[in-house]
Amino acid sequence: MITPVIMAGGSGSRLWPLSRSLYPKQFLTLNGQGTMLQQTLKRLSGLRLERPVVICNEEHRFIVAEQLREINQSGAIILEPVGRNTAPAIALASKTVVESKDALMLVLAADHVIQNEAAFVEAIEKAIPLAEAGKLVTFGIVPTEAHTGYGYIKRGVAVDDNGFQVDAFVEKPNANIAKEYLEGKEHYWNSGMFLMKANRYLEELNQFRPDIYNACESALEKTTKDEYFIRIDKVAFEKCSDESVDYAVMEKTSDAVVVPLDAGWSDIGSWSALWDVNNKDTNGNTVTSDSIMHETTNCLIQGSGRLIATIGIDNLVIVDTKDALLVASKDKVQDVKKIVEQLKAEGRDEFKNHREVYRPWGKYDSIDNGTRYQVKRITVKPGEKLSIQMHHHRAEHWIVVSGTAKVTNGDKTFLVTENESTYIPIGVVHALENPGKLPLEMIEVQSGSYLGEDDIVRFEDRYGRI
């Protein structure tokens, strides 16, 4: 049996403004049905698998749990207190979740597109005997163009009919060298996907990077588990080196093997890459929004609900969200990260959050704000409850639009139904719950001298956020 280990970290900054720090691309629906994380798990349905292991940032834990629940998947969720790259992350999975150290781990990124899922499963099946023999298998993507944005793997001698010994890992080449790689047919794109025994990975990591091995072991000594999450000791894990599995192990081991994969793979590393893999109209446009186009060709147009009209444009990316609009040449989309870096440097919220923010209990949309006031539309899922909390600087008015709210306001608890309201003064302990079977929709009007999300004192929270 194989344990899927899904790497769901990363910020996906090149897909801003759709991808944000607190809601990155692996949790978005960009191509086909379901989010990228959900598609990663669904495409493995042809294999005999153990429960998946998902490794993610602590800030994304509720998103991961909800997206697994939506596709009826139960799995272990390892929370990295800080990002330390793939070598430590795989070590954590190897040590904490894989019950049999002789078991196989299929390590996958949560943000890849595979168009030919049958060919993907076939490649994994070809790699199984190699991994069972103790090889550390990586999957090399058969290149379709002289791409300069990927690292490459040069194959060596054949190990069997399905795989080759890895001769070298090669950094991103220039255009001329990439063309030579394409024509020579001995180089593959480095996919960052692996199949290997847990114990073999740990043996090689301990041999070549004992500092990472020992740091992970120390971080696991104070691991805590609850119904959903496995939490790693932050103080110990912060001391671990930031290192990729390629540098730490795969470039050093003599047991690295590459299995070619030709399955319509893409890591969706930019808006132009998304345009490449999506369906296009007769004018070469990929459109996923309400749009009217005139003399518009070879564009990607993605909106969030309002009409987008275009006239006389070619080769552009237009991405419209509720709080930000991106217009860029397809040839310059790699520079989107420069916009993200500027947003981050200026401390702007568009770097981190969408206007619509998801929480474990539901979501809220900040529909208006100004000096000393803010208006939110709040949706609470059936049976869910916000934390028992208070605010030092703001009062809140709650108006129920649909559904029923169970409200704790100071020492009183009561129901508020459609077209009714209640007022929460500054400093009063309060809570909101949806006791019904339908979503609770309400408008919250905040007023006060400070309206930041950090003005929350939590006294009790079913999601462990105290």
- Radius of gyration of CA atoms, rounded to a whole number: 24 Å
**Mean model confidence by pLDDT:** 93
Helical element count? 11
List low-pLDDT spans: none
Helix percent band: 10-25%
Structural notes for this entry:
- The protein is an alpha/beta fold.
- The protein has three domains: 2-266, Spore Coat Polysaccharide Biosynthesis Protein SpsA, Chain A (Alpha-Beta Complex); 271-341, no CATH class; 356-460, Jelly Rolls (Sandwich).
- Helix 3 (86-96) packs across helix 6, helix 3 (86-96) crosses helix 7 and helix 6 (198-208) crosses helix 7.
Protein topology:
Blueprint lengths: L1 E6 L28 H7 L10 E5 L3 H10 L5 E5 L5 H11 L7 E6 L3 E2 L2 H16 L3 E6 L10 E7 L5 E7 L4 H10 L2 E11 H11 L1 H11 L3 E2 L3 E3 L2 H4 L7 H6 L5 E6 L3 E2 L4 H7 L8 E3 L2 E7 L2 E3 L5 E7 L1 E5 L4 E5 L6 H10 L10 E4 L2 E9 L2 E8 L7 E3 L3 E9 L2 E5 L2 E5 L4 E4 L5 E4 L6 E9 L8 E4 L6
Parallel strand pairs: 1-2, 1-4, 2-3, 3-11, 6-12, 14-16, 15-17, 16-18
Antiparallel strand pairs: 4-9, 5-13, 6-9, 7-8, 7-9, 8-12, 10-11, 18-19, 20-21, 21-22, 22-29, 23-30, 24-27, 24-29, 25-26, 25-28
Helix pairs in contact: 3-6, 3-7, 6-7
